[in-house]
Design a protein that fits this description.
By secondary structure, the protein is an alpha+beta fold. It has helices at residues 4-17, 24-30, 32-37, 45-59, 72-79, 83-89, 110-128, 134-140, 155-159, 163-176, 184-199, 204-208, 218-232, 245-257, 277-283, 325-341, 394-419, 442-446, and strands spanning 104-105, 108-109, 143-145, 267-270, 292-296, 304-312, 351-357, 360-370, 373-383. It folds into two domains: 4-70; 73-450, no CATH class. It has a seven-stranded mixed β-sheet with strand order 3-9-8-7-6-5-4, sandwiched between helices. A two-stranded antiparallel ribbon has the order 1-2. Helix 1 packs across helix 4 (45-59), helix 13 (218-232) runs antiparallel to helix 14 and helix 15 (277-283) packs across helix 16 (325-341).
């Protein structure tokens, strides 16, 4: 077991070589493996390392330091027992077939490389009973984070790709799932609205009427959102919404998201009563429940999850943890598997997810164009306004939600068109991989506090 002196010695070694500002975040980036190893026997990781940091800064009279902290959740994962992942499922084997599409770029067999990384993660879990990163746990289900916006640790380095190959991988994903800018006239109007909210709230309503008309009607949804924000963020509005998930959803999330989640003839909105279809099919009983989902539903055709939203209030992620990241990714994979299993085998149909972590929202898409390669692609990060004083975050939020709705509507239409084909072709039956079951005590072990 590591002791306090070993931890202090390790931090001092980093600090003596640091040319910039000393911080815990930079320390863990400097030597994550050693820091993780030295954290195994600590009951309260965050407090212990902060104590070492503060002691070093004070005793050495350090002036150039930063309070930036690492992702404590990553450290918790180095301690999390996940043996049940493997013993319950006996590690679903992936055998690449000769007649399936694999991801290849510049002659580099991307799919084979990623499956190799998965096997390394399985071996690590089998031998050590623990995994150190989100990437490793995702890989058990053949989910791989193709991350061009750095929503997590550096995926390229973790997977071991050369920079030029990785850039090609990212570029391919960006081209297929691009988010367009809002028209300049719309952005200008939103900025005027934000300025009025800060300085003279009474001018907000008249400004909304100045939103220009647009061909596809998305400004009508923006107008609806802005009117809702006036009600929930008025000068005399309560700020208690950040305390509980239910009130946080009503006050912070619904005004921005729900106008873009209007139902259609093909799409139904479901709240916490909506089971994730892929999860239900795999478990053979009650499946996982998403906090919010948009579902393809029409005339007796099998229901399909198009958009999954997982929500955690600010108080649940204040320590830097990301408790719903893995859950949402697995739910999206379940949706992809369900598309194929129930006769919607069109590789242009994909799943969309929104991970809400306090006021920070990350939009993901997932597809399965290559065997055993579930590409989880963060498309953008946007923020929800905390009060009338930061409505300036809205243009990026609306750009993201316009894209989410466009993808959702397009996927619903593809589901409808493909399912009506007679006969329906099945081309990706060998592409899917059986998911691991939920490990026993998974939620209990994940909820340790740093």
């Amino acid at each position: 077991m590591a002791n306090k002196n070993e931890r202090e010695k390790c931090f001092s070694k980093y600090a003596s070589q640091e040319e910039g500002a000393i911080s815990l975040k930079a320390f863990f980036q400097y030597d994550f493996d050693s820091a993780a190893h030295l954290s195994k026997d600590i009951e309260d990781i965050k407090s212990s390392w902060l104590m070492i940091f503060n002691k070093y800064v004070t005793s050495n009279n350090i002036q150039n330091f930063s309070k930036a902290q690492p992702d404590w959740y990553e450290l918790l994962r180095t301690r999390k027992k996940i043996v049940d992942y493997l013993t319950n499922n006996k590690s679903p084997t992936v055998t690449l077939c000769s007649d399936t599409e694999k991801w290849v770029i510049k002659g580099v067999p991307i799919t084979e490389h990623l499956i190799g990384y998965r096997q390394e993660s399985i071996d690590k879990a089998s031998n050590d009973g623990k995994l150190a990163s989100i990437h490793e746990e995702l890989s058990l289900n053949c989910i791989f984070l193709i991350d061009s916006i750095n929503c997590a640790s550096n995926a390229r380095l973790i997977y071991g790709f050369d920079e030029d190959v990785w850039n090609e991988m990212v570029e391919e994903c960006d081209e297929q799932y691009h988010i367009k800018d809002l028209p300049m006239g719309t952005i200008t109007c939103i900025h005027q609205f934000a300025k009025a909210a800060r300085k003279d709230f009474t001018k907000c309503k008249p400004i909304i009427k100045q939103l220009p008309d647009d061909l596809f009607g998305y400004n009508e949804r923006i107008e609806c959102s802005l009117r809702s924000l006036i009600d929930t963020h008025s000068p005399d509005a309560s700020e208690k919404a950040i305390k509980m998930e239910s009130s946080f959803t009503l006050d912070a999330i619904d005004p921005v998201l729900l106008p873009f989640f209007k139902e259609t003839d093909l799409i139904t909105r479901k709240g916490t009563d909506g089971q994730v279809t892929g999860s239900k099919a795999r478990r053979g009983k009650v499946g996982r429940f998403a906090d919010l989902s948009m579902v393809f539903e029409f005339a007796g055709m099998p229901e399909q999850i198009l958009v999954i939203v997982e929500i955690k209030a600010p108080s649940k992620v204040a320590d830097g943890s990301r408790p719903d990241f893995i859950k949402m990714a697995n739910e999206m994979k379940g949706s992809i598997d369900n598309f194929i299993e129930e006769g919607f085998d069109d590789d242009e149909i994909f799943a969309t997810g929104i991970l809400v972590e306090g006021f920070k929202c990350t939009v993901f898409v997932m597809d399965l164009k290559y065997q055993a390669t579930y590409r989880l692609m963060p498309r953008c990060i946007f923020y929800l306004p905390q009060s009338r004083h930061n409505f300036n975050v809205l243009p990026e939020a609306y750009e993201a939600m316009v894209a989410v709705r466009q993808w959702m509507v397009s996927n619903a239409r593809r589901c409808f068109a493909f399912y009506r084909q007679k006969p329906r072709k099945v081309t990706r039956k060998n592409y899917t991989v059986t998911s691991f079951g939920t490990p026993k005590n998974h939620e209990k072990e994940s909820s340790s506090t740093a």
